[in-house]
Amino acid sequence: MTTSRADRAASWSPDSVVLGCDYNPEQWSESVWHQDVALMREAGVSLVAINIFGWAEIEPRQGEYNFDRLDTIMDLLHSAGIRVNLGTGTSSPPAWLTTLHPEILPTAADGTRRWPGGRQAWCPSSPEFRSAALGLVAKVAERYSSHPALALWHVSNELGCHNAHCYCDTSAAAFREWLRARYTTVDALNQAWGTAFWSQRYSEWNQILPPRATLSSTNPAQRIDFSRFSSDELLDYYRGEAALLRSVSSIPVTTNFMVTAHIRSQNYWQWASEMDVIANDHYLDHRLSHPVSELSFAADLTRGLAQGAPWVLMEQASSAVSWQPHNLAKQPGEMLRNTLTHVARGADTVCFFQWRASRHGAEKFHSALLPHAGTDTSVWRETLDLGAKLHALESLAGTRVEASVALIFSWESWWAAEGDSQPSTDVKYLEQVHAAYDALRANGVTVDVVAPGAALNDYQLVVVPSLYLVDDDSIDVITEFVEAGGVAVVTFFSGIVDETDGIRCDPTGETPPGAFPALLGVWTEQFFPLMPETQLVLSDGGHATTWAEHVRPTTADVVAEFASGPVPGGPAITRNRFGSGAAWYVATALDEPSFADLMGRALDEAGVEQLELRAGVEVVTRSNDSERFRFVINHSAHDISFPVDGEELLTDTTIAGSVTVPAGGVRVIRLSVEEGATR
User: Fold this and answer.
1) In total, how many domains does the chain have?
2) Residue 216 counted as domain residue
């Protein structure tokens, strides 16, 4: 059907905040279905994802389809007024398919095959898999495209979670075709990859392989191109399913992204425009030092992918997950607090994996809205409370988050910065991004996370954390932003290489290396990575670790010097007037208080309003042309008071002067007309 992406997206836009969940009816008898649907209605669930892993259920043998049970659950949900997020069922192939076509199975970098028994046991380049999967999609689309319960098409599931990179011969052939399209000639590829090094020069396309396991470090340019290819290959697979669905239906199509700390294989900036609705899965990761801050960052990044529009949280956990070393249960109130953090940062639909806790399989200890212990439980009571509170927030649906600070984030830079043979394995790209984000969060500001090269006109401050790989166009956008009067903060290991992972330098040595020497007004002569136990002191009393540099100012002013370490007396923080704006450079990894203090100074210079908040408290504002809503989220163990006037929606009370937010609590205030007029 010929409908535009805008029309499909508009058909999705909910007029209230939606509570949803994943449901796996194939795991339960039909008698349980009726009980579940009744409880869904009680909880306020209005969107249910089904058929995510349904392939073996609806095609038990090749070419033999049985839709009876899926028909029944579709009709049952519709009769209860619950809309369906319908999976295409293709995320994991059934046993009959991998038995008939073992060549579908993915191959690891060391050449060993990965077998069925888990999930996503398929090679993204496999024509046999694509043919079988699209055959299933055609049947599902034909049967349900006109079903009145259908609200959203859900392509596959978490594409690339386990099978992002396949190194088999089929993938190798596809990789060569991708390279031919990118470089046209082998000579151009040799130039881009720097194959003069270690006698790696190619004379024919068929000599090129994926970066399979080697005895030494692999070519970094080959490796990053393989990462690009792998992301593109899965996106191409998505396009195949989406095109088929759109040919028979005007229902919006999406898939669930994994914007999270432990998945980095997809460049979602390239994927986002292919989605009718942006959706993300997110789980608190207790392996991180600041899991709640990472939740906020992931939500802001997802909103960036949605270009500021409301988005869908497709999965989260009501309590513990099942795949971390220590699967911590959520404390009372934490499910509500986490959920409303996503809502504050742009999610108008919040869903959970899963509805009913499984009895079997690898996720049997994963939490659910309805736990093993049933309805006489604290989790179920929190589920009911969440449904009621989301209903109270229906008036903010469709509003957008206010932000005047942008943080530039790049999946490609993440891939490249953590390759082999870098100056320090302690420099982790995402850790540096999180450190910059946390410094902004500590100053009470909301951040838009944007792609390299994105327009920066609407922002007062732009933060560029460890953007190791950057192309010329993105350099120009940042430079022009500052020249026109903006303020930028750039941190160490930024602008080091171009898009081929080649060092940005002048072979004559007459101009400074790197992407930003004129903007920053400094010349970095040498890196001095530090041993993990090394702590640095700065001349302004700040502290740092991990990294130092021999920095020579050209036009920049020195803000702070290294008082200890390998370059005592050398610049650690600089500030350069450039055009009508200013650019700060941080040549080390500041500790949290020092980074927050520096960011506060940059925010002041940029004229960004900052909020003095207790640690663990975040304030976010959503608005439209006529109304503003302020979320005050208290992750701390202390009650706090926040100055505000308006109507508190969760408790249905009028606020005059200030609102008290209890420890672990959330308040959402529709601002008074006077305060709402102040932007």
Assistant:
1) 3
2) no
